[in-house]
Amino acid sequence: MDPVTRKVHVRVPATSANLGSGFDTVGLALDYHDELEFTLSSDPLNMAAQVIIDGEGADTLPRDESHLVISTFRRACSRFGLSKTGFILEAHNRIPQARGMGSSAEAIVAGIAAAYAFSHEGELDRDVIFDYAAQLEGHPDNVAPAVYGGMTVSWTQPGDGVAQPDGTTPPALFRSVNYLVGPDVTASVFIPDFELSTSKAREALPTVVPFADAVFNVSRAALLIGAMNPAVLTSPRDPNDLLMEATEDKLHQAYRGPLMEPSARLITLLRANGFAAMVSGAGPCVLVLHNGDANSAIDAVAHEQLESGHWKVLHLATDTQGVQVARL
């Protein structure tokens, strides 16, 4: 199959997973983006990928086929029927690496969305992109908001277990629904100067949790829909009180705290002052959700951390669009 264009621009939002209680299921797209441009080579003998990176990861990310965007793009092109070709990737990265803001999900979604745009006319089929991205990532909580925008709740359905002729069994089925976020809900992300790998954060979790802790998180996660969009409530409640309660957690944050003690201390400080703070994804970023403008007050609570030079803060709106592509 020949590509429908020679150049594609992709814009993918940062994301925050879990939101406290919604462990491995809830994600939020943030108005903070990586932008990537793919230009296909006109030389049929050129099969190489050239990578140009500025911004986050410019000194650390690989510039060969091992780059996650490149490897994902190659796989997606094959899946969508495009012949292998050389190309230039120009990546303008703003999303920090290994901090809990969805950098790996962004890379996977960007590669798949670009391949889809080269192989199809018209709008993106977001369901196709989400399903393949979740398969590659292995879990849907970050890729869902990166694809759809807003707040997403995702889950996994096991395959039917019926062996195929080649002896394989069908992969898990990934599902996601998208919820509106109230226009007054703001997000503040505190970014530290240290990293934490998702695999190490995962290893810190127990294999069994107390029944009461599971029930605790179910009740809090059920509150998230109303806390993030108070307009759906039929009885008035203080939305920031709801955010405080809805983001409580007993399944993952306490177990991961020793791996990111500065983050755990900052969360405790912010929550003691009435701000709904939590680990962003697997950490070590700290996410604060608030209904209304409280940027100055949040900064004031965390002034010691910000003045130390080890932290910076981004005050962000919610991204409502998810991944965007333009054929150039």
UniProtKB/TrEMBL annotation:
Quote the cellular component terms of the Gene Ontology held in the record. Answer: cytoplasm
Species the sequence originates in: Bifidobacterium pseudolongum PV8-2
Is Zinc-finger tagged as a keyword? no
A GO BP term here is: threonine biosynthetic process
Q: What is this protein called?
A: Homoserine kinase
Which UniProt keyword terms apply here? Amino-acid biosynthesis, ATP-binding, Cytoplasm, Kinase, Nucleotide-binding, Threonine biosynthesis, Transferase
Under which pathway is this protein filed? Amino-acid biosynthesis; L-threonine biosynthesis; L-threonine from L-aspartate: step 4/5
Its predominant location is: cytoplasm
